[in-house]
């Protein structure tokens, strides 16, 4: 039987917008050694804005943005949303075919019969297309395998994220890690601003699972790892960690489903709130 105190704990958590899917997860929060964060949508707002459009010689800025927007039509990734918002015009579905979203890379699709690639440098490399090494979150575009230019976008750190990291350190968490598929320069900059101990960037979704596996091996079974994420890409990592926590507002349905705890307010500082509730609950139960 489950001690009554746990229900009190789960209830207290839910009043502050933290949904705990079982008393075992609340109990696990008493022994957290590492907290691992995803970046985009978790520590940052996931609301990118286009900051520059840099077409190759034969295209205009409008044309480059148009190709990128067409390519991103079917994607719900925060990057895709920013491109579509910047374009601002209606896109006709019937101009597209053969849509292919390549996880951690970008998009391949035929636009008016021409093959368009839109994504990061890894996507360009995959198709043997040379692209400049730009810093920041960059979407490179190629048309019919010919390099067509790049668009730079930028995201903002959530107001709450610095407090989230600080309060976890105050609770004695040994190490705070950030995993991201985004560029190294972007990851390092966010990590530095927030005081995160370790940053791993340019990761494919399977690499995020590998990083969690490594951390799992560097602790005793009693010690627990939290992973906090928001995207469809994060589902395997949420499942692998001892406690998977998803952002309930910004998060994808798949991430919310896979998580053990859901933060309805999207505030990462609610993780330390949950840990404090767990500690208080334990005092009542035992
Ligand atoms: P994160 O770890 O920041 O949540 P993802 O794993 O979702 O990032 O994506 C990693 C990288 O893959 C992105 O930073 C981007 O370079 C590229 N990418 C993913 N989806 C898209 C897309 N729809 N359009 C362009 N690039 C994309
Ligand atoms: Mg994400």
Reported for the largest beta sheet, the result is: 7 strands, mixed
Text of the CATH class of the largest domain: Alpha Beta
Proportion of residues in β-strands: 25-35%
Number of helices: 11
> What's the number of extended β-strand segments?
13
**Count of discrete domains:** 2
Hetero ligands: adenosine-5'-diphosphate, magnesium ion
| Principal-axes shape call | elongated
Taking all residues together, what is the mean pLDDT? 93
What is the CA-CA span between the terminal residues? Answer: 14 Å
Radius of gyration: 21 Å
CATH superfamily of the largest domain, by name, is: HAD superfamily/HAD-like
Helical percentage: 25-40%
What is the succession of H and E elements? HEHEEHHEEEHEEHEHEHEHEHEH
Computed structural class? alpha/beta
**CATH fold-level assignment of the largest domain:** Rossmann fold
- Which CATH architecture of the largest domain would you pick? 3-Layer(aba) Sandwich
Subcellular location: Cell membrane
Organism: Paenibacillus tianjinensis
Family: Belongs to the cation transport ATPase (P-type) (TC 3.A.3) family. Type IB subfamily.
Protein name: Cd(2+)-exporting ATPase
Describe this structure in words.
The chain has helices spanning 4-15, 23-28, 61-72, 78-87, 121-126, 161-170, 184-194, 205-217, 235-240, 253-258, 270-285; strands at 18-20, 32-38, 49-55, 96-102, 106-111, 114-119, 137-143, 146-154, 175-179, 198-200, 224-229, 243-247, 261-263. It is of the alpha/beta class and 286 residues long. It folds into 2 domains: 4-45 and 157-285, HAD superfamily/HAD-like (Rossmann fold, 3-Layer(aba) Sandwich), CATH 3.40.50; 49-154, 3-Layer(aba) Sandwich (Calcium-transporting ATPase, cytoplasmic domain N). Strands 1-13-12-11-2-9-10 form a 7-stranded mixed sheet, with helices on both faces. Strands 3-8-7-6-5-4 form a 6-stranded antiparallel sheet. The longest helix is centred in the last third of the chain and has 16 residues, at 270-285. The radius of gyration is 21 Å and the shape is elongated. The two termini are 14 Å apart. The structure holds adenosine-5'-diphosphate (ADP) and magnesium ion. Magnesium ion binds next to loops. Its main location: membrane. Belongs to the cation transport ATPase (P-type) (TC 3.A.3) family. Type IB subfamily.
């Amino acid at each position: 039987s489950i001690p009554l105190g746990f229900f009190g704990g789960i209830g207290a958590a839910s009043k502050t917008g933290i949904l705990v899917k079982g008393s075992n997860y609340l109990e696990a929060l008493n022994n957290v050694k590492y907290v691992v964060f995803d970046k985009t949508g978790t520590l940052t707002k996931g609301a990118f804005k286009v900051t520059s459009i840099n077409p190759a010689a034969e295209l205009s800025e409008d044309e480059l943005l148009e190709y990128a927007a067409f390519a991103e039509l079917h994607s719900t990734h925060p990057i895709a949303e920013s491109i579509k918002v910047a374009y601002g015009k209606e896109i006709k579905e019937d101009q597209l075919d053969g849509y292919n979203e390549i996880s951690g890379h970008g998009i391949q699709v035929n636009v008016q019969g021409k093959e368009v690639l839109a994504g990061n440098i890894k996507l360009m490399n995959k198709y043997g297309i040379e692209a400049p090494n730009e810093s920041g979150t960059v979407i490179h575009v190629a048309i019919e395998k010919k390099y067509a230019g790049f668009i730079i976008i930028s995201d903002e750190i959530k107001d709450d994220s610095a407090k989230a990291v600080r309060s976890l350190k105050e609770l004695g968490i040994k190490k705070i890690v950030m995993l991201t598929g985004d560029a190294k320069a972007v990851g390092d900059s966010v990590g530095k601003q927030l005081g995160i101990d370790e940053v791993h960037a340019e990761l494919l979704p399977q690499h995020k699972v590998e990083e969690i596996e490594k951390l799992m091996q560097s602790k005793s079974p009693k010690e627990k790892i939290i992973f906090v994420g928001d995207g469809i890409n994060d589902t395997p990592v949420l499942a692998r960690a001892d406690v998977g926590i998803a952002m309930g507002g910004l998060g994808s349905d798949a991430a919310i489903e896979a998580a053990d705890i859901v933060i309805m307010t999207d505030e990462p500082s609610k993780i330390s709130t949950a840990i404090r509730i767990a500690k208080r609950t334990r005092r009542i139960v035992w």
